[in-house]
C-alpha cells in the first residue's frame, strides 16, 4: 500500500525511493491516531516528498570516502591535487593562494558576504535541491550568503557536473567552476566540502601544524601521490586541529596497499576523517576568516 501510493503520487521519482525512518514513523502515527482519509493522504504526500528529496547516502561512507570514490575514475582537466583541488598551473601546487595573495570573497556594508552562483542545467530538480540545500546551509551558521548570479556579477561560482567533485581554493575572479558530478558528488557534506574550498579552505591534513596530530605514512601512499600530503600555510584561524572536520581525509586516503596513510598522534586508534558534514570547528574557522561576528 505504501509504495503503491507513493508510485501514484510521485511516479517520476519512484525508482529511487527508499523506505525511510521518517516515513515509517508517519505511518505508525497514522495507524495510532486513525486520522481521517484526508489526513492520511497529507501524511502520504509528505512521506513521498521526503522520499523524492532524500539523498541516497551510501551506508557508512564519509565525505572523504565519497570524494575518493567519485574522483578516482578520471584523468581530470584541470589538474587536481589532494584529490579534489583544482590548480590553474603547476606553480600553485605547493602554494596556498589564500595566504600568498588573498582569496576571500568581499563583504558588503550589511556585514554579509554575498557569493553569486549559477547552477548549470545539467542537474535534475532533485539534484539541484541537494546543491541548494548545501548552499543555503551556510546561512544558518555564518554570514556567507550564496545567491543566484546576475548578469552584472563579475565573480561567481559556476556549479557544473564535470568529471568528479572538485573546486579551486578561494575566489579566483570571473567565472569559477565548482564541479559536482551527478554521479557520486551530490551529497550534503560533499557540497559543503567543495564550497569550503571555494571559500578559501584547504584540507585538514595539509595544515601547517598537522605533524603534532597526524603521522603521515608516505611508504603506504600511491607512488606519485605523495604531494597530496605536503604541508601548506593554511588558514587555521586559531582553531584546533580537528579530526572531525569535513576537510579531513580518511585513514587510508591515497593508500597503495590498503594500509593507513595517516595515523593520529598520540592515540593511533582515535577515529578521524569520518565527517558527513561541517564540524563546529569548520564553522568557527569560517566565521573567523570572514569576521562574521564583527
Ligand atoms: Zn577537498
TrEMBL record:
Q: Which domain of life is it from?
A: Eukaryota
SMART domains assigned: ZnMc
Indicate which residues the UniProt annotation says bind Zn(2+).
Answer: 193, 197, 203
Q: What cofactor does this protein call for? A: Zn(2+)
How, per the record, is the cofactor bound? Answer: Binds 1 zinc ion per subunit.
Iron in keyword set? no
**Which residues does the entry assign to the active site, renumbered to this chain?**
194
Pfam families in the record: Astacin
The EC code for this enzyme is 3.4.24.-
What keywords does the record list, in alphabetical order?
Hydrolase, Metal-binding, Metalloprotease, Protease, Zinc
Please tell me whether the keyword Zinc is annotated for this protein: yes
UniProt GO molecular function: metalloendopeptidase activity; zinc ion binding
Tell me which residues make up the Peptidase M12A domain.
Answer: 94-294
InterPro entries linked: MetalloPept_cat_dom_sf (IPR024079), Peptidase_M12A (IPR001506), Peptidase_Metallo (IPR006026)
- Its recorded name reads Metalloendopeptidase
Amino acid at each position: 500500500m505504501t509504495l503503491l501510493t507513493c508510485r501514484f503520487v510521485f511516479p517520476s521519482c519512484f525508482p529511487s525511493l527508499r523506505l525511510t525512518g521518517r516515513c515509517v514513523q508517519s505511518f505508525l502515527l497514522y495507524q495510532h491516531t486513525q486520522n481521517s482519509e484526508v489526513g492520511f493522504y497529507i501524511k502520504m504526500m509528505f512521506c513521498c516528498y521526503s522520499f523524492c528529496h532524500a539523498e541516497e547516502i551510501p551506508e557508512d561512507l564519509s565525505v572523504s570516502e565519497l570524494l575518493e570514490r567519485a574522483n578516482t575514475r578520471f584523468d581530470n582537466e584541470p589538474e587536481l591535487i589532494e584529490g579534489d583541488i583544482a590548480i590553474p598551473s603547476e606553480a600553485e601546487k605547493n602554494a596556498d593562494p589564500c595566504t600568498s595573495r588573498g582569496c576571500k570573497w568581499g563583504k558588503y556594508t550589511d556585514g554579509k558576504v554575498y557569493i553569486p552562483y549559477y547552477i548549470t542545467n545539467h542537474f535534475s530538480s532533485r539534484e539541484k535541491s541537494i546543491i541548494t540545500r548545501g548552499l543555503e546551509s551556510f546561512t544558518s551558521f555564518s554570514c556567507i550568503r550564496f545567491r543566484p548570479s546576475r548578469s552584472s556579477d563579475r565573480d561567481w561560482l559556476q556549479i557544473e557536473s564535470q568529471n568528479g567533485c572538485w573546486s579551486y581554493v578561494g575566489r579566483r575572479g570571473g567565472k569559477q567552476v565548482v564541479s559536482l558530478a551527478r554521479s557520486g558528488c551530490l551529497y550534503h557534506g560533499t557540497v559543503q566540502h567543495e564550497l569550503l574550498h571555494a571559500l578559501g579552505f584547504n584540507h585538514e591534513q595539509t595544515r601547517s601544524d598537522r605533524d603534532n596530530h597526524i603521522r603521515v605514512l608516505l611508504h603506504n601512499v600511491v607512488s606519485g601521490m605523495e604531494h597530496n600530503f605536503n604541508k601548506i600555510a593554511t588558514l587555521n584561524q586559531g582553531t584546533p586541529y580537528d579530526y572531525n572536520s569535513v576537510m579531513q581525509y580518511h585513514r587510508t586516503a591515497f593508500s597503495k596497499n590498503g594500509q593507513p596513510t595517516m595515523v593520529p598522534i598520540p592515540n593511533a586508534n582515535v577515529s578521524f576523517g569520518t565527517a558527513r558534514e561541517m564540524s563546529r570547528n569548520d564553522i568557527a574557522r569560517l566565521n573567523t576568516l570572514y569576521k562574521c561576528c564583527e
